[in-house]
Design brief:
InterPro entries: Glutathione-S-Trfase_C-like (IPR010987), Glutathione-S-Trfase_C_sf (IPR036282), Glutathione_S-Trfase (IPR040079), Glutathione_S-Trfase_N (IPR004045), Thioredoxin-like_sf (IPR036249). The protein is of the alpha+beta class and 261 residues long. It is 47% helix and 7% strand.
Length: 261
């Protein structure tokens, strides 16, 4: 393998004019009109771990009898660059799914980042987040832990284990080490309580399960169950299986996406 020589100034060498694909710039790439339905909540998303956090949250709210959690769900095909269209960028200037609009307010509220959407919905409906200061703080501790830690699983371990053009020892070792440290943290935590933050199912569980629960169940990256030796984490496995059986989780995973065009 040739040694990479750091240039004095980095230059992007893969310029293209396609709608999709990574670029070192942000912003609108093409004009777009997103559909808008009649439900109070308009969700523009995809069935990725970050995307299903929100469909699971909405279905859990509906299981709790929250009628105002009705939503229209539209598919944003990130492979075709639909997240860079003008209407989507108005909702989320960062061009990442999921993004949501709450039409129930006099002035519609635009929310992006999955953690922010979960917190918004929990506070709007006063569900799935404790109201006491200790429980609320512990829930937010773990919600923001997931937001900060998840990229080490997806963009780190997952990318170099499953998607990189060729296996490279250094990044695979680095991100596998961190992935297993995080899995061990969750396993130790769940040895002491039934849910991530205590005795109650919260938005912290909803945020963490799509990434770590599905990984623990071998549903994220082919061969990762054996590679990560996930049998080492029995408490995490038990929690992952228990959460997977919840009707709201199953409905959130099976939610039907409407096309945007």
């Amino acid at each position: 393998m040739l040694k990479y020589e750091l240039p004095e100034v980095w230059q992007w060498e893969e310029e293209n004019s396609n709608r999709g694909g990574n670029r070192p710039t942000a912003g609108v790439r093409f004009e777009q009109t997103l559909p808008v339905g009649e439900a109070p909540l308009q969700l523009y998303s995809l069935g990725t771990p970050n995307g299903v956090k929100v469909t699971i949250m909405l279905e859990e709210l509906k299981e709790l009898g929250v009628d105002d959690a009705d939503y229209d769900l539209y598919k944003i095909n990130i492979g075709e660059g639909e997240q860079f269209g003008s209407d989507f960028v108005k909702i989320n200037p960062n061009s990442k799914i999921p993004a949501m609009v709450d039409q129930s307010q006099n002035t519609p509220v635009q929310i992006f980042e999955s953690g922010s959407i979960l917190l918004y919905l929990a506070e709007k409906f006063n569900k799935l987040i404790p109201t006491d200061i200790h429980g609320r703080t512990e829930t937010l501790n773990w919600l923001f832990w997931q937001v900060g830690s998840g990229p080490f699983i997806g963009g780190g371990f997952g990318h170099f284990f499953a998607y990189a053009p060729e296996p490279i020892k250094y990044p695979i070792d680095r991100y596998t080490m961190e992935a297993k440290r995080q899995l061990d943290l969750l396993d130790n935590t769940l040895a002491e309580r039934p849910y991530v933050t205590g005795d109650t199912y919260t938005i912290a569980d909803i945020a963490i399960w799509p990434w770590y629960g599905q990984l623990a169940l071998g549903k994220s990256y082919k061969g990762s169950y054996e590679f990560l030796n996930l049998d080492e984490y029995p408490n995490l496995l038990e929690w992952s299986r228990r959460i997977a059986k919840r009707p709201g989780v199953q409905k959130g995973l099976d939610a039907k996406y409407q096309p945007i065009k």
